[in-house]
Specification:
By secondary structure, this protein is mainly beta. It has a single domain, classed as Beta-galactosidase, Chain A, domain 5. It is built from three helices and 27 strands.
Length: about 375
C-alpha cells in the first residue's frame, strides 16, 4: 500500500506539473480532458481545457457547448477569469446553467408570437417567453449534450462540438446538423465558428451568450465600450422588433466612440438595462469578418475586440454576481447574431437556411492589453 500511495502521489505531482507548465507563457499548446459530471438523465458531460501556451486558457463543457471559464492575462501577466464561471452542480443542470456562455439555437433571440411563415407554410414553435419564442425554446442548444472532437491546430488548441437537432424539435422544420468549433489561438483570441446543414428549409440564428467582466470581479461600470454601429433595431413589448431601424445618435445607445458604461447607463430610464440589437457597420456590406465592438477595462489594461461575419450584435447588461447586491451591473454580453425576429421581417437579413446551402458564421473575441 505505501508503494501504491507513493506512485499515486508521484503521478499526480507529475500531471499537475504538466498542466501548470502548459498554462505558462511559452509552453506548448495543450488540451486537457476531464469529467464534468452527469445530467439528471444520466448523460455524461465532459470538460475540455484549451491551453494556448501564451498564458490563456478556456474550459469548455459538452453540455450546452458552454465556455465554463476563460482566463486571459493582463499587461502584468496576471490572469483572471473574464466570463461568468460555471461549475458542476445538479441545480445547474436542472436550470440549464442559465446566464452562462452557452450556444443558443436553433434560433437565438426572439420570434414574435412564436410563429413564422416559410414557403407558404405556417410554423408554430414553442412559446417560452409569454406568447413569444426566445433562444430556441425550452429544449434549446444550451440544454443538450454535444459530441466532442478535440484537436491541436497550427492556430492553437481547438474543440469541435456537434449536435443534430431533429425535425420538429421545438416546432422547427428539418433535421439540422450543427457544428461549433472553439479555437484558442496563440494570439489569445477565442474564435467561434458555426456551421449548420439541413434537409429542408429552416431558420437558423446561432450565438454564444457569454457574460463578460474583463476585471474578473466587481461591477463593469468603468469598462469603456465601443460598438461599431450607428443604427439599432427598434422594439416594443417584450423587446419584439417593430421593424424600425433607428439611429443611436443622441441616445444612451451611442457607443460609436468609447464610453464608460456607467456614464451611458445613467442615461437609461430608471430600472432599465441594455438589451438591444445593434446594426453593425460593414465595409461594402460584405459578410466578411469585420470589427463589431471593443471593451477596455482601465485598471488592468485588459481589452477585448469582437469581430464577426454576422450583421448584428445584442448588447446586454446583467446585474449578476457580487455587483448585483449593490444594484450594479456585474457582466455584459456581446452576442453576435442575425437580427431578432428576422423570420417575420422581410427587410432584415435572412436567417433561412436551405438544403445545399450551409449556414456559416465566425465570431472572434480578440484579447489584448493597453
Amino acid at each position: 500500500m505505501p508503494l501504491v500511495s507513493s506512485l499515486r502521489r508521484t503521478c499526480c505531482a507529475a500531471l499537475c506539473g504538466l498542466i501548470f507548465a502548459a498554462t505558462l507563457p511559452g509552453a506548448a499548446p495543450a488540451i486537457e480532458r476531464a469529467s464534468f459530471g452527469r445530467t439528471p438523465a444520466g448523460a455524461e458531460v465532459e470538460q475540455f481545457t484549451l491551453v494556448n501556451g501564451q498564458g490563456a486558457s478556456a474550459k469548455i463543457i459538452t453540455y450546452g457547448a458552454i465556455v465554463a471559464d476563460l482566463r486571459i492575462p493582463d499587461r502584468t501577466g496576471r490572469t483572471v477569469g473574464v466570463v461568468r464561471e460555471i461549475t458542476a452542480s445538479p441545480a445547474g443542470f436542472e436550470r440549464g446553467f442559465a446566464q452562462s456562455a452557452a450556444v443558443f439555437g436553433r434560433v437565438a433571440n426572439r420570434i414574435a408570437l412564436a410563429r413564422f411563415e416559410l414557403d407558404g407554410e405556417t410554423y408554430q414553435v414553442t412559446p417560452n417567453m409569454g406568447r413569444h419564442h426566445i433562444h430556441g425554446g425550452r429544449l434549446n442548444f444550451s440544454r443538450v449534450v454535444w459530441t466532442p472532437s478535440p484537436v491541436v491546430t497550427p492556430d492553437g488548441p481547438a474543440l469541435e462540438l456537434r449536435y443534430r437537432s431533429p425535425h420538429g424539435e421545438e416546432g422547427f422544420p428539418g433535421n439540422l446538423d450543427v457544428t461549433v468549433t472553439y479555437t484558442l489561438t496563440l494570439s489569445n483570441t477565442l474564435r467561434v465558428e458555426y456551421t449548420a446543414t439541413t434537409d429542408r428549409p429552416t431558420p437558423v440564428n446561432l450565438t454564444n451568450h457569454a457574460f463578460f467582466n474583463l476585471a474578473g470581479t466587481g461591477d463593469v461600470l468603468d469598462h469603456e465600450v465601443t460598438v461599431n454601429a450607428e443604427l439599432y433595431t427598434g422594439a416594443g413589448e417584450s423587446l419584439i422588433p417593430n421593424g424600425e431601424i433607428r439611429t443611436v445618435r443622441n441616445t444612451a445607445l451611442d457607443f460609436t466612440s468609447p464610453r464608460a458604461l456607467g456614464a451611458r447607463v445613467a442615461q437609461l430610464p430608471a430600472n432599465q438595462r441594455y438589451d438591444h440589437n445593434f446594426v453593425l457597420k460593414r465595409p461594402g456590406g460584405a459578410p466578411s469578418l469585420a470589427f463589431a465592438a471593443r471593451v477596455l477595462e482601465p485598471k488592468s489594461g485588459r481589452t477585448m475586440e469582437v469581430w464577426t461575419t454576422l450583421p448584428g450584435v445584442q448588447f446586454y447588461t446583467s446585474p449578476l454576481g457580487a455587483a448585483a447586491a449593490a444594484g450594479r451591473f456585474g457582466f455584459y454580453c456581446l452576442e453576435t447574431q442575425h437580427f431578432p425576429d428576422s423570420v417575420n421581417h422581410a427587410h432584415f437579413p435572412s436567417t433561412i437556411v436551405r438544403p445545399g446551402s450551409p449556414y456559416r458564421s465566425i465570431t472572434e473575441f480578440r484579447f489584448g492589453q493597453r
